[in-house]
């Protein structure tokens, strides 16, 4: 028995629809009784075998496309982690008792991912309903012409729907490719600061086009022995938020190069944000690192506090200089900034709220989870490996509901 007194194996076998479980490589792992009945195969003929070795296309039908369409659908599900409902398919099946004799069959398939705890696709659930009799429309025995017209109409409409879906997928793929290039152009490549290695990560929310309104920035300040790192978060998702993000990131990067400190840089950014539509309520945090004095000077515009993990595992949140988001503070008041010392082997982490915020959960719970993860992985010397470990700990199994960006630096 599995779960609270429920035998899920018995439930699987009792499902009225034909259901098969496949590996991401399309090898049969399990099937239920309804699937065996529909396919005319035994378990031993299916389990452990590649799907299309068992069910190839009809070699006598030059127009056969069922295998190609099913393969494309299953690969999409494996790659995206999203279900895919296929249009009506003609997919002939070889008679198991008469090799070389093919039966004309029509199917309505649905393919669904089965996710592992880490959110990856562990299995593919392939459900099929046979609609051959419906397509043939012989109920009441109408004479041939009417049945053939109905069959042709249903099948033609299904093929048209599939072609429309395919065009939409191609358009989405082109839009996603544009979005990826846009994101790469607007965010700087990872680089060392003051001879210290840094790692950066960004993850869009689920369903986004691989673009987000979160940003990071890393700057060596010329001739000063200082570096500046910053993260920010524009309200919203997708291309519009990414466009605003690109403008604000560039403005803060330029301001940091001439400002005396992070508070002044954020003041300049706040003034600029007033002229950018969609920049309202943007948050940002900036940290200036002085490698000579071993100090961090920081300021925040409504953003979650950067975290400093000390060699003994103690985590300090840099929360002594927090102000309202951009455009939400009185101009006549000076923006606060604060300073703290660091030692060799400290880890500095700047991040956006998608890493720690969860619905129906107090933010302190997320910050505690972050601190615990930093403490646990603090001896990981490579910033890239440390960044991956933090994401593995903190991204929920169901995926991110908000965009996330972070900078990891070993000081």
What are the defining features of this structure?
411 residues; elongated; alpha+beta; 6-stranded mixed β-sheet
**Biggest sheet architecture:** 6 strands, antiparallel
Distance between the termini: 52 Å
> What ranges have pLDDT less than 50 throughout 5 or more consecutive residues?
138-142
Structural class: alpha+beta
* Radius of gyration computed on alpha carbons: 28 Å
Task: Give structural notes.
The protein has 411 residues and is an alpha+beta fold. The chain has 11 helices and 19 strands. It has helices at 8-14, 33-39, 43-46, 51-54, 66-80, 132-136, 144-186, 238-258, 262-273, 363-377, 383-394, and strands at residues 18-22, 28-31, 84-85, 89-90, 93-94, 102-103, 106-115, 121-130, 198-203, 212-221, 226-237, 283-290, 295-301, 307-309, 315-317, 322-323, 338-341, 347-351, 404-410. Strands 1, 2, 3, 4, 7 and 8 form a 6-stranded antiparallel beta sheet that branches. Strands 10, 11, 12, 13, 16 and 17 form a 6-stranded mixed beta sheet that branches. Strands 9-19-18-14-15 form a 5-stranded antiparallel beta sheet, with helices on one face. A hairpin with a 4-residue loop joins strand 12 and strand 13. The protein is elongated, with a radius of gyration of 28 Å. The two termini are 52 Å apart.
């Amino acid at each position: 028995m599995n779960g609270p007194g429920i035998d899920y194996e018995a439930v699987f076998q009792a499902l009225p629809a034909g259901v098969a479980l496949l590996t991401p490589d399309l090898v049969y792992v399990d099937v239920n009784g309804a699937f065996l009945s529909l396919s005319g195969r035994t378990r031993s003929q299916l389990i452990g075998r590649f799907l299309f070795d068992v069910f190839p296309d009809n070699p006598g039908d030059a127009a056969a496309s069922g295998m190609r369409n099913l393969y494309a659908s299953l690969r999409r599900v494996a790659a995206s982690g999203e279900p895919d409902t296929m249009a009506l398919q003609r997919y002939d099946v070889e008679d198991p008792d008469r090799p070389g004799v093919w039966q004309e069959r029509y199917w309505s398939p649905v393919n669904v991912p089965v996710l592992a705890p880490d959110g990856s696709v562990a299995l593919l659930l392939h459900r099929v309903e046979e609609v051959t009799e419906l397509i043939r429309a012989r109920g009441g025995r109408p004479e041939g012409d009417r049945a053939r017209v109905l069959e042709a109409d249903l099948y033609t409409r299904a093929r048209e729907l599939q072609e429309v879906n395919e065009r939409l997928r191609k358009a989405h793929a082109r839009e996603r490719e544009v979005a990826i290039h846009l994101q790469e152009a607007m965010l700087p490549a990872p680089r060392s600061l003051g001879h210290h290695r840094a790692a950066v990560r960004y993850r869009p929310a689920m369903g986004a086009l691989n673009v987000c309104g979160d940003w990071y920035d890393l700057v060596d300040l010329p001739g000063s022995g200082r570096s500046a790192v910053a993260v920010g978060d524009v309200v919203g998702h997708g291309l519009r938020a990414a466009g605003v993000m690109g403008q604000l990131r560039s403005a803060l990067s330029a301001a940091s190069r001439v400002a005396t400190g992070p508070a002044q840089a954020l003041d300049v950014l706040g003034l600029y944000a007033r002229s950018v539509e969609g920049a309202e309520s943007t948050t940002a945090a900036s940290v200036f690192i002085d490698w000579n004095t071993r100090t961090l000077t920081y300021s925040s515009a409504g953003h979650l506090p950067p975290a400093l993990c000390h060699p003994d595992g103690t985590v300090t949140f840099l929360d002594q200089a927090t102000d309202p988001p951009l455009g939400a503070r009185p101009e006549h008041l000076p923006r606060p900034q604060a300073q703290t010392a660091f030692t060799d082997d400290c880890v500095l982490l700047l991040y956006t709220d998608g890493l720690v915020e969860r619905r129906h959960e107090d933010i302190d719970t997320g910050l505690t989870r972050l601190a615990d993860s930093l403490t646990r992985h603090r001896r990981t010397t490579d910033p890239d490996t440390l960044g991956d470990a933090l994401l593995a700990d903190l991204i929920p199994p169901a995926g991110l509901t908000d965009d996330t960006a972070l900078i990891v630096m070993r000081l």
